[in-house]
Amino acid sequence: MTTFDPQMLISGQYHDMLVAGLKMSLQYLFWAFWIALPLGLVIALFRLSPYRPLRWIGATYVEVVRSIPLLAHMLFWYFGVPEMLPAPIKDMLYEGPVESICAVMALGVYTAAYMAEDIRSGIRAVPGVQMEAARALGLGYMRTMRLVILPQAFRLTVPPLISQTLNMWKGTSIATVIGAAEMMYQAGQVESQSFRSFEAFAFASVSYLVVSLVITGVAAWFQHRYPVRTM
Protein backbone atom coordinates (compact mmCIF):
# COMPACT_ATOMS: atom_id res chain seq x y z
CA MET A 1 0.00 0.00 0.00
CA THR A 2 1.43 3.37 -1.05
CA THR A 3 1.67 5.90 1.77
CA PHE A 4 1.85 9.66 1.66
CA ASP A 5 5.47 10.85 1.50
CA PRO A 6 5.75 14.44 2.80
CA GLN A 7 9.54 14.42 2.42
CA MET A 8 9.35 14.96 -1.33
CA LEU A 9 7.37 18.16 -0.69
CA ILE A 10 9.84 19.49 1.86
CA SER A 11 13.14 19.14 0.03
CA GLY A 12 14.76 17.73 -3.05
CA GLN A 13 14.26 17.98 -6.79
CA TYR A 14 10.49 17.60 -6.77
CA HIS A 15 10.11 20.22 -4.04
CA ASP A 16 12.12 22.66 -6.17
CA MET A 17 9.97 21.95 -9.23
CA LEU A 18 6.71 22.51 -7.37
CA VAL A 19 7.92 25.70 -5.70
CA ALA A 20 9.14 27.01 -9.06
CA GLY A 21 5.69 26.35 -10.49
CA LEU A 22 4.03 28.17 -7.60
CA LYS A 23 6.28 31.19 -8.10
CA MET A 24 5.51 31.19 -11.82
CA SER A 25 1.75 31.07 -11.18
CA LEU A 26 2.03 34.00 -8.76
CA GLN A 27 3.95 35.98 -11.38
CA TYR A 28 1.22 35.26 -13.93
CA LEU A 29 -1.38 36.49 -11.45
CA PHE A 30 0.57 39.67 -10.68
CA TRP A 31 1.20 40.72 -14.27
CA ALA A 32 -2.23 39.69 -15.55
CA PHE A 33 -3.90 41.72 -12.79
CA TRP A 34 -2.05 44.85 -13.87
CA ILE A 35 -3.23 44.28 -17.40
CA ALA A 36 -6.82 43.44 -16.48
CA LEU A 37 -7.56 46.26 -14.03
CA PRO A 38 -6.46 49.27 -16.16
CA LEU A 39 -7.92 47.72 -19.30
CA GLY A 40 -11.17 46.95 -17.48
CA LEU A 41 -11.34 50.56 -16.28
CA VAL A 42 -10.88 51.86 -19.83
CA ILE A 43 -13.55 49.52 -21.19
CA ALA A 44 -15.94 50.53 -18.39
CA LEU A 45 -15.44 54.21 -19.23
CA PHE A 46 -16.00 53.42 -22.90
CA ARG A 47 -19.31 51.75 -22.02
CA LEU A 48 -20.42 54.83 -20.07
CA SER A 49 -19.11 57.34 -22.59
CA PRO A 50 -21.51 59.89 -24.06
CA TYR A 51 -20.05 59.03 -27.48
CA ARG A 52 -21.77 56.17 -29.28
CA PRO A 53 -18.65 54.77 -31.08
CA LEU A 54 -16.87 54.35 -27.74
CA ARG A 55 -19.92 52.70 -26.20
CA TRP A 56 -20.06 50.33 -29.18
CA ILE A 57 -16.36 49.44 -28.83
CA GLY A 58 -16.75 48.77 -25.11
CA ALA A 59 -19.89 46.67 -25.52
CA THR A 60 -18.37 44.66 -28.37
CA TYR A 61 -15.23 43.92 -26.37
CA VAL A 62 -17.19 42.71 -23.36
CA GLU A 63 -19.61 40.55 -25.31
CA VAL A 64 -16.99 38.97 -27.56
CA VAL A 65 -14.42 38.24 -24.86
CA ARG A 66 -16.92 36.89 -22.31
CA SER A 67 -18.54 34.63 -24.91
CA ILE A 68 -15.29 32.71 -25.54
CA PRO A 69 -13.91 30.35 -22.87
CA LEU A 70 -10.53 31.05 -21.29
CA LEU A 71 -9.06 27.88 -22.80
CA ALA A 72 -9.81 29.16 -26.31
CA HIS A 73 -8.30 32.55 -25.42
CA MET A 74 -5.14 30.84 -24.20
CA LEU A 75 -4.77 28.78 -27.36
CA PHE A 76 -5.53 31.77 -29.59
CA TRP A 77 -2.88 33.94 -27.93
CA TYR A 78 -0.29 31.18 -28.18
CA PHE A 79 -0.96 29.75 -31.64
CA GLY A 80 -2.73 32.61 -33.40
CA VAL A 81 -1.52 36.02 -32.25
CA PRO A 82 2.26 35.48 -32.83
CA GLU A 83 1.57 34.45 -36.42
CA MET A 84 -0.21 37.75 -37.08
CA LEU A 85 2.76 39.83 -35.92
CA PRO A 86 5.50 41.20 -38.20
CA ALA A 87 8.38 38.77 -38.64
CA PRO A 88 10.94 40.70 -36.52
CA ILE A 89 8.53 40.99 -33.59
CA LYS A 90 7.49 37.34 -33.93
CA ASP A 91 11.11 36.19 -33.94
CA MET A 92 11.87 38.30 -30.86
CA LEU A 93 8.81 36.88 -29.12
CA TYR A 94 9.81 33.29 -29.82
CA GLU A 95 13.30 33.94 -28.53
CA GLY A 96 11.84 34.87 -25.13
CA PRO A 97 9.39 33.19 -22.74
CA VAL A 98 6.60 33.10 -25.30
CA GLU A 99 4.43 30.72 -23.24
CA SER A 100 4.50 33.02 -20.23
CA ILE A 101 3.85 36.15 -22.27
CA CYS A 102 0.87 34.59 -24.05
CA ALA A 103 -0.53 33.18 -20.80
CA VAL A 104 -0.37 36.58 -19.08
CA MET A 105 -1.95 38.37 -22.03
CA ALA A 106 -4.76 35.82 -22.30
CA LEU A 107 -5.52 36.01 -18.59
CA GLY A 108 -5.37 39.80 -18.51
CA VAL A 109 -7.49 40.43 -21.58
CA TYR A 110 -10.06 37.82 -20.57
CA THR A 111 -10.46 39.04 -16.98
CA ALA A 112 -10.60 42.68 -18.08
CA ALA A 113 -13.99 42.06 -19.72
CA TYR A 114 -15.45 40.89 -16.40
CA MET A 115 -13.76 43.61 -14.36
CA ALA A 116 -15.11 46.21 -16.78
CA GLU A 117 -18.68 45.21 -15.99
CA ASP A 118 -17.99 45.26 -12.25
CA ILE A 119 -16.42 48.73 -12.47
CA ARG A 120 -19.27 49.97 -14.64
CA SER A 121 -21.77 48.75 -12.05
CA GLY A 122 -19.81 50.53 -9.31
CA ILE A 123 -19.79 53.79 -11.26
CA ARG A 124 -23.51 53.56 -11.91
CA ALA A 125 -24.10 52.94 -8.18
CA VAL A 126 -22.62 56.34 -7.30
CA PRO A 127 -25.52 58.82 -7.04
CA GLY A 128 -25.89 60.89 -10.20
CA VAL A 129 -26.19 64.09 -8.19
CA GLN A 130 -22.47 63.89 -7.45
CA MET A 131 -21.63 64.09 -11.13
CA GLU A 132 -24.02 67.01 -11.52
CA ALA A 133 -22.58 68.82 -8.50
CA ALA A 134 -18.99 68.37 -9.71
CA ARG A 135 -19.88 69.61 -13.17
CA ALA A 136 -21.68 72.59 -11.64
CA LEU A 137 -18.46 73.46 -9.81
CA GLY A 138 -16.64 73.64 -13.13
CA LEU A 139 -14.97 70.23 -13.26
CA GLY A 140 -14.81 68.56 -16.64
CA TYR A 141 -16.09 65.04 -17.29
CA MET A 142 -12.71 63.32 -16.92
CA ARG A 143 -11.69 65.27 -13.79
CA THR A 144 -15.07 64.51 -12.23
CA MET A 145 -14.62 60.82 -12.93
CA ARG A 146 -11.04 60.83 -11.59
CA LEU A 147 -11.57 62.93 -8.47
CA VAL A 148 -15.18 62.26 -7.46
CA ILE A 149 -16.77 59.21 -9.06
CA LEU A 150 -14.01 56.61 -9.44
CA PRO A 151 -12.71 56.71 -5.83
CA GLN A 152 -16.20 55.88 -4.60
CA ALA A 153 -16.87 53.38 -7.35
CA PHE A 154 -13.72 51.39 -6.60
CA ARG A 155 -14.72 51.02 -2.95
CA LEU A 156 -18.06 49.64 -4.08
CA THR A 157 -16.43 47.23 -6.53
CA VAL A 158 -13.80 45.73 -4.22
CA PRO A 159 -15.83 42.50 -3.54
CA PRO A 160 -16.55 41.70 -7.21
CA LEU A 161 -13.02 42.67 -8.26
CA ILE A 162 -11.62 40.33 -5.62
CA SER A 163 -13.89 37.61 -6.97
CA GLN A 164 -12.49 38.18 -10.46
CA THR A 165 -8.96 38.14 -9.06
CA LEU A 166 -9.66 34.77 -7.46
CA ASN A 167 -11.00 33.47 -10.77
CA MET A 168 -7.87 34.75 -12.48
CA TRP A 169 -5.66 33.03 -9.90
CA LYS A 170 -7.42 29.72 -10.54
CA GLY A 171 -7.33 30.43 -14.27
CA THR A 172 -3.52 30.41 -14.23
CA SER A 173 -3.84 26.61 -14.22
CA ILE A 174 -5.19 26.76 -17.79
CA ALA A 175 -1.76 27.92 -18.97
CA THR A 176 -0.57 24.33 -18.70
CA VAL A 177 -2.20 23.59 -22.08
CA ILE A 178 0.39 25.78 -23.86
CA GLY A 179 3.32 24.37 -21.93
CA ALA A 180 3.74 27.27 -19.52
CA ALA A 181 5.73 26.07 -16.51
CA GLU A 182 3.16 27.10 -13.92
CA MET A 183 2.08 25.07 -10.92
CA MET A 184 -0.22 22.52 -12.59
CA TYR A 185 2.37 21.90 -15.31
CA GLN A 186 5.07 21.25 -12.71
CA ALA A 187 2.74 19.04 -10.68
CA GLY A 188 2.14 16.99 -13.81
CA GLN A 189 5.87 16.74 -14.42
CA VAL A 190 6.48 15.61 -10.85
CA GLU A 191 3.71 13.01 -11.13
CA SER A 192 5.07 11.61 -14.41
CA GLN A 193 8.62 11.36 -13.05
CA SER A 194 7.91 10.08 -9.54
CA PHE A 195 4.50 8.39 -9.94
CA ARG A 196 3.50 10.22 -6.74
CA SER A 197 0.34 11.86 -8.02
CA PHE A 198 -1.28 12.42 -4.62
CA GLU A 199 1.65 14.39 -3.22
CA ALA A 200 2.11 16.48 -6.38
CA PHE A 201 -1.51 17.48 -6.80
CA ALA A 202 -2.05 17.86 -3.05
CA PHE A 203 0.69 20.50 -3.09
CA ALA A 204 -1.00 22.28 -5.99
CA SER A 205 -4.45 22.12 -4.37
CA VAL A 206 -3.22 23.43 -1.02
CA SER A 207 -1.27 26.20 -2.76
CA TYR A 208 -4.35 27.36 -4.68
CA LEU A 209 -6.36 27.28 -1.45
CA VAL A 210 -3.81 29.22 0.61
CA VAL A 211 -3.32 31.96 -1.98
CA SER A 212 -7.09 32.28 -2.42
CA LEU A 213 -7.53 32.68 1.34
CA VAL A 214 -4.79 35.32 1.44
CA ILE A 215 -6.48 37.30 -1.34
CA THR A 216 -9.82 37.04 0.46
CA GLY A 217 -8.20 38.16 3.72
CA VAL A 218 -6.62 41.19 2.09
CA ALA A 219 -10.01 42.12 0.64
CA ALA A 220 -11.67 41.79 4.05
CA TRP A 221 -8.98 43.99 5.62
CA PHE A 222 -9.42 46.61 2.89
CA GLN A 223 -13.18 46.73 3.36
CA HIS A 224 -12.74 47.08 7.12
CA ARG A 225 -10.07 49.75 6.74
CA TYR A 226 -11.89 51.68 4.01
CA PRO A 227 -15.61 51.02 4.46
CA VAL A 228 -18.13 52.13 1.88
CA ARG A 229 -19.74 55.38 2.92
CA THR A 230 -23.48 55.39 2.61
CA MET A 231 -25.39 58.54 1.83
Describe the fold and architecture.
This protein has 231 residues and is mainly alpha-helical. 81% of the residues lie in helices and 0% in strands. Helix 2 packs across helix 6 and helix 3 crosses helix 6 (98-125). The protein is globular, with a radius of gyration of 21 Å.
Question: Please, how many helices?
Answer: 10
Low-confidence stretches: none
Give me the count of strands.
0
Mean pLDDT: 85
Judging from the principal axes of the Cα atoms, what is the shape?
A: globular
Radius of gyration: 21 Å
Relative helix content: over 70%
Biggest β-sheet, characterized? none
Class from secondary-structure proportions: mainly alpha
Order of helices and strands: HHHHHHHHHH
Distance between the termini: 64 Å
Beta-strand fraction estimate: under 5%
What is this structure, in a nutshell?
The protein has helices at residues 7-10, 13-47, 52-66, 70-84, 87-95, 98-125, 128-136, 141-171, 183-194, 197-225. The chain is mainly alpha-helical and 231 residues long.
Topology:
Blueprint: H1 7-10, H2 13-47, H3 52-66, H4 70-84, H5 87-95, H6 98-125, H7 128-136, H8 141-171, H9 183-194, H10 197-225
Helix pairs in contact: 2-3, 2-6, 2-9, 3-6, 4-6, 6-8, 7-8, 8-10, 9-10
Label this structure with key terms.
231 residues, mainly alpha, 81% helix, globular
